[in-house]
Design goal:
Layout: E1 2-5, H1 7-19, E2 30-36, E3 44-48, H2 51-57, E4 63-68, H3 69-72, H4 77-88, H5 111-127
Parallel strand pairs: 2-4
Antiparallel strand pairs: 1-2, 3-4
Helix pairs in contact: 1-4, 4-5
Length: 129
C-alpha cells in the first residue's frame, strides 16, 4: 500500500470547514493523504495521533484524513464532499485529538446527519455567491 499527499483534499477540507463554520476545527492540523492499493472497504478514514505521542513530541492534536483512491476518486463531486463531511464529523468539538464514534448518547454520524450538513453547506455557498 502507498500513501501520497493529497493537496486537493486539503484544499477541499479547508473550504468545507469554512463553509460549514466548523470553528472548532483547525484545518492546518488535518493532513490529507490518498492511499493506493488498500484492501479496505472504506471510502475514507480519519486517523488521530495518540495522546502519548503528542505529549512526548510536544505537539498539538493532529489528524490524518485518508481517502482510498480506488473508491473515493470514482465518486461524484457531491458524494466526495459528503464523504469528507462524514470524516470531519468524527472530530470532537474540543479538537482534543480523539475521535467521535458513529453513535453516541447525543449524536449520530449517519447518512441523515451528513445529508443535513450537506444542505447547510449548499445554503451557505449560495449566500456567499
Amino acid at each position: 500500500m502507498e500513501w501520497l499527499e493529497a493537496p486537493d483534499i486539503e484544499k477541499e477540507i479547508r473550504h468545507l470547514v469554512r463553509s460549514l463554520k466548523f470553528d472548532h476545527i483547525d484545518s492546518n492540523s488535518i493532513h490529507c493523504v490518498r492511499s493506493y492499493g488498500s484492501t479496505s472497504r472504506a471510502i475514507a478514514r480519519i486517523w488521530s495521533l495518540p495522546r502519548i505521542w503528542r505529549q512526548v513530541l510536544n505537539i498539538n492534536p493532529q489528524y490524518v484524513l485518508e481517502v482510498v483512491s480506488q473508491y473515493y476518486d470514482k465518486q461524484s463531486d457531491t458524494d466526495k464532499r459528503k464523504t469528507l463531511i462524514h470524516e470531519l464529523m468524527h472530530i470532537p468539538k474540543n479538537f482534543s485529538g480523539s475521535l467521535v464514534s458513529h453513535r453516541g448518547r447525543y449524536h449520530r454520524i449517519d447518512k441523515h446527519s451528513v445529508d443535513k450538513l450537506f444542505q447547510i453547506y449548499l445554503s451557505n455557498i449560495k449566500e456567499n455567491v
